[in-house]
Amino acid sequence: MSDDASNPVFELFNEIGIINQLSRAFFEARLPNGMVLPHFSVLNHLMRVGEGRTPLQIARAFQVPKNSMTHTLAGLEKRGLIEVRPHPSDRRSKTIWLTDAGRAFRGEAMARVGRDMAPVLPEMEPEDVQQTLAFLKSLREVLDRARD
Amino acid sequence: MSDDASNPVFELFNEIGIINQLSRAFFEARLPNGMVLPHFSVLNHLMRVGEGRTPLQIARAFQVPKNSMTHTLAGLEKRGLIEVRPHPSDRRSKTIWLTDAGRAFRGEAMARVGRDMAPVLPEMEPEDVQQTLAFLKSLREVLDRARD
DNA sequence: ACTATATGGTTCGACATCGAACATTATGGA
DNA sequence: TCCATAATGTTCGATGTCGAACCATATAGT
Questions:
Q1: How far apart are CA A25 and CA A30, in angstroms?
Q2: pLDDT digit string (tens) for A33-48?
């Protein structure tokens, strides 16, 4: 049977789904109370890409529906980790900023995850990581275009 | 700032999460009514790996909690796509089998997804796919061991 | 054989996630 | 200027997902 099912691309998606499960579980086991991976991911995103993004921009960055991002941001705001300010030029929109508590929390969580991940990191060749990362980024663009 | 945050492994997890979102949305847009990616994935798994697996084996294969698999299997059985039989030697357990309808459904869904994916598949070098797949499988094992 | 512990699966309650419909504000064209 | 349409974000209802507690059966130790 050499139909589409045998295309390794499907196997790739399968593997990606499984790693997603594993990494999600790994992160969430190291976050307090009811915090979930998207909470941490958004804090991290704001650090890396910059604060002052709009909710829609963040939703698009993670490829999740905008109402999902509304919910995630509400959780972060409730915990005092982000601050929501009006958009300077578009009154429909908002901008998202980290609070000091948010920066501190992200730093602590990152340190904890990094510490527990440290034993296994040396097993991965940086070159392989880079190569995989490059391919996945191109795959993301391909999927994004196929989204119609 | 060259702390753990800059480790490309985290970027890798991020990219994996995004591609997971995209591929999930892509698949589910091509499945009927209330069917969801795990439904399709399980059917596919039974075809590839073989029928007669137990729910727990399947849950471990996808790295999801066993109660989540209970729910997914219930959905498949309700739709008549799988059949649950008692385990021959362990009365706590069960075995999962595809029905004819399940095999047919999986074939149709696979064909539809494959057709819509066809335009973008040529953009990916088979060699890159293989390389990525190999690395991700090793990454999965690393994470699995780190699971404690 | 008997009990303690482990294992497979389900139930339950809490919560994340999503599509669809909605309110509000922007934008573009007559 | 005015209206139709688009864009941003929220609300609502339905459902997926998960951890914890729970049954039923197996296994191990004595």
A1: 9
A2: 889 999 999 999 999 9
Q: What is the pLDDT of residues A13-24, one digit of tens each?
A: 999 999 999 999
- Name which of B4, B37, B60 to mutate to probe chain A: the one with the most chain A Cβ atoms within 10 A of its Cβ: B4
Residues B2 and B138: their CA atoms lie apart, in Å, by 26
The model's pTM: 0.92
* Cβ density class B137-148: b for 16+ within 10 Å, e for less: eebbebbeeeee
Count Cβ atoms within 10 A of the Cβ of residue B90 and give its class: 0-12 exposed, 13-18 middle, 19 or more buried.
exposed
Distance CA A90, CA A132 (A): 39
As a whole number of Å, the CA-based R_g of chain B is 18
Chain-chain contact of A110 with B139 (C-beta, under 8 angstroms)? no
CB contact under 8 A, A15 and B133: yes
Residue A3 CB burial class (10 angstroms; 0-12, 13-18, ≥19): exposed
pLDDT band at B37 (very low <50, low <70, confident <90, very high): very high
User: How confident is residue B1, by pLDDT bands cut at 50, 70 and 90?
Assistant: very low
Q: How far apart are the first and last CA of chain A?
A: 30
Angle (CA) B125-B128-B134 rounded to 5° is: 145
Between these two residues, B125 and A74, which has the higher pLDDT value?
A: A74
Q: How many angstroms from the chain centroid is the CA of residue B39?
A: 8
**Count of beta carbons in the 10 Å neighbourhood of residue A119:** 11
- On chain A, the residues whose CB falls within 8 A of the CB of B126 are 8
- How far is it, in rounded angstroms, from Cα B38 to Cα B69? 9
